[in-house]
Amino acid sequence: MLRKILWILLCCLSSQMIQAQSGQWIWMKGSSAANSVGNYGSKGVSSPSNEPPARYQAAYWIDLQGNYWMFGGSEAMGMGHNDLWKYEPSSNQWTWVSGEMTGINPFGNYGTMGIPSTLNYPPALGYGSNCWTDKNGDLWLFGGYDQSSFNMSDNLWKYHIPTNEWTWVQGSGAFGVTSAIYGPKGVYGNTYLPGSRAECKSGWLLGDELWLYGGQDATSTSYGDLWSYDINTNQWAWQGGTQVLAFPGSYGIKGVASASNIPPSRCSYTKWKDANNNLYLFAGGQFSTNLLLGRNDVWKFDMGSKEWVWISGSNIGDDLGFNPAYCQPDTTKYPISRIENQTAQTNSSCVNAFWTFGGFDFSGLSFHNDLWLFNTENLEWTKVSGEASLAGVPAPYSFGSPGVAAPSNMPPGRGGPSVWTDNSGNFWICGGGGNLNAGWGYLNDLWKFIPDTSCFKTGLTGITLAPPAQTTLCPGDTIKYNVPGNVQINLQPTTGTNFNAASGQILFFGPGTNTYTLTANSLNPNDPCFLNDTLVFTISGYSIPKADFIVSPLIAGISNPNFDLVNTSINAQNYEWYLDNVLISTNKDLNWTINQLGKFCFKLIAFGDCNQKDSITKCVEVVDQGVISFPNVFSPNGDNLNDVFRPIIKGDYTITNFQIFNRWGQSVYQFRNYSTKPEWDGTYQGERCEMGTYFYMAEVSDGMGVHQLIKGDVILLR
Question: Where are the CATH 2.60.40.10 domain residues in the chain?
Answer without folding.
Answer: 472-541, 549-623
